[in-house]
Amino acid sequence: MRTTSARITASACGQRILILSAGVGSGHNSAAAAVQQACTARADIAEVQVLDVLQVSSVLYRALLAKGYFVLVEDLPWLVEWGYDISNPPYRRRGPIDPWTRVNAAPVVSAIKRFQPTAIICTHFLPAQLLASLLLRGVIDAKTAVVTTDYDFQGLSLSGAFHKIFVAREEGKVELMALGLPPDRVAATGIPISKQLTPAPVRDADKPPMLLISAGATGGDYAVSVVRQTMHMRSAFTATVVCGHNDALRQRIETLVAPVGDRYSVLGFTTEMPQLLQRADLFVGKPGGLSASECMAAGLPMVLVNPIPGQEVRNGDYLMEQGAAVRCNAAATIGWKIDEVLRKPGRLQMMQAAAQRTGRPDAAADVLSALLDGPSRPLVVTRAAQRTILAASEQRFVATDLTGPSSLVRLVDQTSGSTVALLQEEELADLQKRYATSDGDLVLRPGLASLLLHWEERRLLRAMLQGDDELPVRVEGP
């Protein structure tokens, strides 16, 4: 079989890694930076580039997706939760990319063509659908992956063609496998965070516990009530308050804590957040995916306040399940809640140990290894298979419980052992008529993909073959 140009380039000149993010909040770009940092530790990577897809889109598109999201979070949080839930079922949206998104994606496509990557990693779901379209049209033959940046899996991250999908925890992988996704295409690596190059300082047990109170990168006003409540605490403590880019918030808090001397240190935006995480004993703030992942890697338990409905509430549920966090549902009890953690003998230490167990500090490196050392051919999920996965999700079925023509079958590359297609059983019959050999094997060939074939089958063959002359596959499933 013929080897494709991308695979020759990767082996001869080193890997060219393109990381696509979207600046909806800071977490997705932070995950992209973490993967970029991990690239520098690998000798087989020649060049890496990070692109925020919103920065090259139109001003209107960027404003609606980025700024509009935070307006909803502040003013209509119930709508954010509704949107999260309604978009959560996998493959609810199928079909071609809408014209407006396609126009705004044109600069991203141009950037991909200029850079000629051998692998593309998405830290946001927005570019994932675009990459699937490019794979199915034969525009790219780079390895592609989607990295989720929250602890709960969100169905928007699934596309019709990809090489790997990376989820934050094992339960997410189990969920996708239950819906029918093959285990060789899903990995539970954790959320990528930047690697700390200096050893963590040893926490001094003789000093009062240090609280790290975070208002987030944009500086949420909820931090004022958090600080005010800690001023009523009976436990001994010190606190560092990080106000992000909100200078007005920093000034308000400085004025608030001025009467109590040097117990509080108030900062604006800081690049020293990793060091603060290492020195702190308890984090107080929102459970964003990246913030939570960084805390867990530092062995830093969390007191959760003001979570965004949807993903942050679910992040918090997971952390509390692990014993690494407590949540405050009422602003008036924040000080009491923190006091409860600090005053009960051994409780803070137990939560710190739970955080340490939950942390995945090597997630970024694990993502790179699993993608670059993994299958060279993408997994293609046909539109019919997507309908089956959606139905299984909505009806709370496990995919293996499905029977009949809509049940799922897999095509597995006989050479590599990787799954290359997921399709409905009734779709398999047509492939067997066309590509079965005399001894019953299935060998896919481009020469048989005439223009008379169904459009879906042509896309399927093009993506799986990747320019090779033939592909022997075996069928797995009902």
Automatic annotation (TrEMBL):
Pfam families: Glycos_transf_1, MGDG_synth. It is an enzyme of class 2 (transferase). GO terms for molecular function: glycosyltransferase activity. Keywords: Glycosyltransferase, Transferase. Coiled coil: none annotated. Residues 28-193 form the Diacylglycerol glucosyltransferase N-terminal domain. InterPro entries: Diacylglyc_glucosyltr_N (IPR009695), Glyco_trans_1 (IPR001296), Glycosyltransf_28_UgtP (IPR050519). It comes from the Bacteria. Residues 241-356 form the Glycosyl transferase family domain. Its EC number is 2.4.1.315. Belongs to the glycosyltransferase 28 family. This is Processive 1,2-diacylglycerol beta-glucosyltransferase. The lineage of its organism: Bacteria, Bacillati, Actinomycetota, Actinomycetes, Micrococcales.
